[in-house]
């Protein structure tokens, strides 16, 4: 099994600390705390939204992910990587990691190409932790990104670390600045 121990450590800043480096249009996207799926569908103005499942597997989290989830690096985790596409073009890539021991009975593996966000935001007990931001590209996909963000969702004893990277293709389509 791949241990991913050589992967570079991602640098994350609290969202407010990244604010001075961020344009207002990007701030509105990056600092938003409602469903990104819903926002993308609205911004897509009739473009067809689709979650493309890139990878779903069980293995270890990256070191910074394990730390954010408060689990040891040798704890198995459920990992899901997707591209959120509008008319077939990826605008966002996302990687979600959850401790495997918390996933029993949650049916996460049955999500397939349904949006995790559409399901999560229907949960009445959902709590969301603070947003953190990075200007580094994702480690799980070869894409050009403008900003990345992450936050921890909690629902029914399950913690999910959701990391979302906004791609330059989205900036181009919506005429957003590069940063
Ligand atoms: C967390 C959300 O869900 C989105 C859907 C995801 C998925 O299906 O794996 C992953 C991250 C998100 O951007 C959201 O809509 O806010």
UniProtKB/TrEMBL annotation:
Q: Where does this protein chiefly localize?
A: cytoplasm
Reaction(s) catalysed by this chain, per the record, are: chorismate = 4-hydroxybenzoate + pyruvate
Residues that bind substrate: 80, 116, 164
Please name the GO terms that the record assigns under molecular function: chorismate lyase activity
Location in or out of the cell: Cytoplasm
Keyword set for this entry?
Cytoplasm, Lyase, Pyruvate, Ubiquinone biosynthesis
Q: Name one Pfam family in it.
A: Chor_lyase
Q: Which SUPFAM superfamilies match?
A: Chorismate lyase-like
Q: In which pathway does it act?
A: Cofactor biosynthesis; ubiquinone biosynthesis
Q: What is its EC number?
A: 4.1.3.40
For the keyword 4Fe-4S, the answer is: no
Which family does the similarity line name? Answer: Belongs to the UbiC family.
Functional summary from the UniProt entry: Removes the pyruvyl group from chorismate, with concomitant aromatization of the ring, to provide 4-hydroxybenzoate (4HB) for the ubiquinone pathway.
Listed PANTHER family: CHORISMATE PYRUVATE-LYASE
Supply the name of the protein. Probable chorismate pyruvate-lyase
